[in-house]
Specification:
- This protein has about 300 residues and is mostly helical.
- It is built from 12 helices and no strands.
- The protein has one domain.
- Helix 4 packs antiparallel against helix 11.
- The longest helix is centred in the last third of the chain and has 29 residues.
- The mean pLDDT is about 85.
């Protein structure tokens, strides 16, 4: 942590939780007029446009070549293009509350990826215990004893696939993108820009561009989701990492379900079943244990 940072990062940290927690509500609103793949496209496009403005205004320079662009773009596939399409599809069939709770298991997916694909995380007892507890939390949130209730199995699979992408994307970026030394704002621009190009043909070829009227409120929701949630939020995120460390920055995923549940119940009028908040608490507990927050002091980046 920066010695001069103090607690100034806390405001940005809380803002991140609010912005990313609101994204599930915003996705729900956007899907009234724009199909799932279209939502992903506009989210990537508006995020990339925002980052382009930030890079241009700050006059950030980067030494890029094709290899660097491809490596960064591949990270964008895991962190932006693919999971956002999956979240869009899933939220067409399940509540924003459930989507946010499953998203809360992202840290557990990251550890699984580190242990299996990247083989850079040792199989420590607290990691295994945390993963198992998190899995139990997901089963509780999904009401597994009821056969997942009224939830579409494909939608549940899409949500799990989306957080699996996040779980792979984080370690991938740390291993292959961070060592490139490209400024964070430029990295975000390239991730979102390549993701935009990746999603575009799917958007154009798989169905209608719009499924309803794009009202001013829906347009505002899409702009907020793209420019704020997918653009400016990353500037906040990297600032928190610089000032407080990545361990603290990544715990923002514990806040987002709280914001999403609040908006889902009070604004969208979604029904909250008793097992969903219980499952969410167990998921967060499992993630905290697996990351070592309850057994040791977390390492700073």
């Amino acid at each position: 942590m920066s010695k001069t940072a103090g607690r100034g990062w806390l405001f940005l940290y809380l803002a991140l939780g609010l912005i990313w927690g609101s994204s599930f509500f915003l996705i729900h609103e956007v899907l009234h007029a724009i199909p799932a793949i279209g939502m992903s496209f506009w989210r990537c496009f508006l995020g990339a446009a925002t980052m382009l403005v930030i890079v241009a205004v700050s006059r950030t320079k980067a030494n890029l070549d094709l290899k660097k662009i491809l490596l960064i773009g591949a990270g964008g596939m895991f962190m932006n293009g693919i999971p956002w399409m999956l979240f869009g599809y899933a939220q067409s069939h399940v509540t924003s509350i459930l989507a946010s709770i499953i998203n809360g298991a992202t840290p557990i997916m990251t550890l699984l990826a580190l242990m299996t694909i990247f083989k850079s995380e040792k199989t420590k007892p607290h990691v295994i215990v945390g993963i198992l507890i998190g899995a139990v939390g997901l089963m509780i949130a999904l009401a597994a004893w009821q056969g997942f209730g009224e939830n579409d199995p494909l939608s549940i699979g899409a949500l799990v696939g989306a957080i699996a992408c996040y779980g792979i994307g984080g370690p991938y970026i740390r291993r292959y993108v961070t060592p490139l030394g490209v400024p964070n704002t430029v990295t975000s621009l390239l991730q979102l820009g390549v993701s935009t190009l990746f999603v575009l043909p799917f958007y154009l070829l798989t169905g209608p561009l719009f499924v309803g009227e794009v009202t001013p409120s829906i347009a505002w929701a899409m702009l907020s989701l793209g420019a704020l949630g997918s653009g400016i939020a990353y500037v906040f995120y990297y600032r928190v990492i610089a000032d407080a460390g990545s361990a603290i920055a990544n715990t923002v995923t514990y806040i987002t379900p709280l914001v999403a549940v609040f908006l889902g119940v009070l604004v969208l009028g979604e029904q909250l079943y008793w097992y969903e908040p219980v499952g969410a608490v167990v998921v967060i507990l499992g993630a905290a244990i697996s990351q070592g927050y309850l057994t040791r002091k977390p390492k700073l980046a």
